[in-house]
Amino acid sequence: MLRFYIASILLLTLWSNHLLAQGGFTASAVQITSEVKNDTQISGQVEDPTESSIQFRVIKNTISFEKEFFDVPILSDQSFEFNFKLAQPTVIEMMYGQSSIKIYLEPKNDVYISFNGKDFINSLTFSGDGAVHNDYYVATQQQFSRWDRNFILYEITRRQASDFTTYISALHKQRLEFLTTYPSNLKASFTEDFSDFIIADIDYWWAYYLMMYRIERPLILGEPVPMELPESYYAFLDDIEISNDAALNNHYYLDFLDEYMQFKSSQSDQQLTPQAQLIAVHRSIEKYILTKTYQLKVRPTPYDDKTELCVLSRNTELEYLRNKTTETFRYEMNGLVYIDNFYKVKTPNGIVGWVPGLGIKFKEREITATSNVTSIEKDTDVRSYLKNETLYYALAKQLYQKTNQNKLQQVGRDIAIFRDENPFEVYTKILSAAYEIAQLKGKGDDTFLNTYSYSNLTTPIIKGTSLGLAPKHTLSKKKNSIHIPRNTDYVEIDAKPKKRPTTPTSIKGNFIHIKDQKAELVLYTDPVLFREKRFSLDGKFSHNIHLSESTFGVINRGDEQVPVYIEPGDRLVIVSENHHLSKNLKYSGRGSLHNTYLLDFQRHFKNLHQELEQKIRYANPKEFLAFMNKARLKKRAYCQRYQKEKRLTNAFEIQMEADIDYWYAFHLLNYTIERPLYEGKDGRMNVPNDYYDFLSDIELSPEGVLPNANYTYFLNEYLDFQSEKEEHLGMTKVDLANQFLEKEAVYFVEAQEMSIACKRGRSQALGHVIKAYIEQCPYESYNDALRFVYNESKGLISGTLAPDFILNDIDGNKVALSDLKGKVVYLDFWATWCNPCVRSLHHSHKLSQTFANQDVVFLYVSLDEDQKKWQKYLESHDVAGIHVHTDSENIYQSEIAQLYKVKKLPTYVLVDKDGKIAYYPANSPSNSQLVVQIKELISRENTAN
To answer: What is the pTM (predicted TM-score) of this model?
Structure first.
């Protein structure tokens, strides 16, 4: 049982770098001098401060999820104060040093927070308006802190679907019980908004992770995404409200809603499609600027204080170009020196320049306009299963995403229609601002662009902020922990494994064929990524492989499984002439002694392993420790007798002993977690003080043991155990590995954690770290794993050459992608058993007719396992284009699927005339935007020589 927390690596470091990159919040001069207080306030007192400031992270709005950081100084009297206008209830993250907690705020709350700087979380107290909400909210965070995302993702990896449903539902019940048993007199003070929020926080936390199972489990295990689950799995959807307007300020509900929409869209290939042209009358608010001082100087750039483009008089109307500096600059006005942000403007005579914020004031006016627009169909997917405000939230989210994809011509019309139809003004404001910014970026005018998306939190005032300077803030860095630099591009890391000496190894034999029970050999070739190689053992077989190091594996047939160990140079012969695999399996040839031992060992201790499950469930700590000590002695005695009687290699003897010792140590640690789960409890159980004495007898960093499975299980369990100690709070698994482990064990943990982080979408940030690791790590198997997972997780990058391939068409002719250079190529990866693929083919056929006799090729790559079914389908259906087929039985492991990162069907890719990736993934054939993209690519001239 492998226990590891997904992506725990470096989260704190990532946050630290991001925070430092923000440079803190610098208030404008107006804000600093103002004595006016806004309607919502956070203030408080810090006893024994260890930091100079407190950070607050705010999500601007629930459409863009843009983040804003405010660095609030702790003043000389140890107080702090931060006030602002708040449009609707929200959650703000409060960070002090390396600890953080989330607080809940409603408009007009005045929350007073006090804490001790040496014990931030545990000493927090709240008073004032909003305190009763945060007493509960912080209590829940502390009570259930162990159930973070990494913990749940770990449980996803180790549990089958039905087991995970039972497990997460038990945790859901505990969260509900915590609310039920909370003092009634305190719950009576909860506002309606907060009551809705906490119910959503419980229910949609549960529903979100149930939805994520179909994505996260195959992603981590390297299988196709999403995984197929029985319809009965989704029965939980009947127990929750899908369109829940009252939950739209809860991030678990919004995360659930995103996953639910993805789930529904995967069941249908419907798209947002144009319906009809019509005239729309729409109104917008235009923001403009009036100068409020005489002799206001206009600069060509914010930092050029020597040049004047012009001087403006008072009440001059300026066009506001929606650009604001994110830093402050010095300027003179009326003989005094100020520091402020600068704004980009256009004067009445067309001069474009920059003016300071103190010299201007903003005004608004309503603009009415008409335009021809394209309506969005009323029966689109999202309209069929969402309603009320939730529907408009989802539509706004879709339009926002299209805006960020630079589909401005199309999305501008859609936003206009949405504005007239949408009764919730906030979503129109968010989209309008996003659209304006996208237009500016499209012009390349973003040197000082500050995101002006609608913010729930406005006009912040921070007490004690100095002009032009953010309070100093430093974050401690653990020794030997991996540091992730901020970078925006992928680094170049060669994906090819480093060549290592290999030795020819053969595995052959004869297996009786049993209907519906195919036998196969699975070799675990990668302890970091859990990659494996599979070989058929049905009938007479002979496999020649090249190994650079010893490897473990299993032989599978039906419900039976036996362990296998292969060393380079082995000549193993395997025979099974009976239905019962483990009882009748026989080995001969070089390597037979090792595998006979493993088979005999499994047979001999079969009953003991069955008893182990009962002991975990029912034995108390003293009884379980006694059982495990006795079992370890029995296994050691058996191993020693075998060593005396048989000639075994030294490497195998090391593995035998390690397998016993770390099986023993892992289960002793795991018992303290597993036993409470059987009783419906969470967290590690309390055991006698001497229970953990066995750890002093276990070598933490043995040589030559990796990749022993029981050792890796123990290693991850041990690091989790250490992370729970108070003195190790905040330390990552890599930090702990550097503190407690040595040599190869440290490299293994680092490689494992970085590979997990890559799978979780952090490969871009990790590029420099992985490259540095590979340059100094002496264990090439770990380097190869990171080379693979880093390049695999990058996906296909626009502007890079599309991977070339050669496949056979329906007539057996070879088709190479490189032969199609000079034409736009639309790649459609599909299969006849894929219903969405088949449904989209008629759209594709129409599309190919649209571009007939033009420089476009429609290339269909079938991933059907059964080539005859593919041929039969094409013979009975008229689908124009070039059709090719892959020969692999394991479609997602085929060479073409690996080249193009195909994890699900259908997948579409657009390749330009130069043979470079233009869009990955590309739009489906039914999406009208695809026509625009293909036309644009056709019109481009070839740039390749």
So the answer is: 0.47
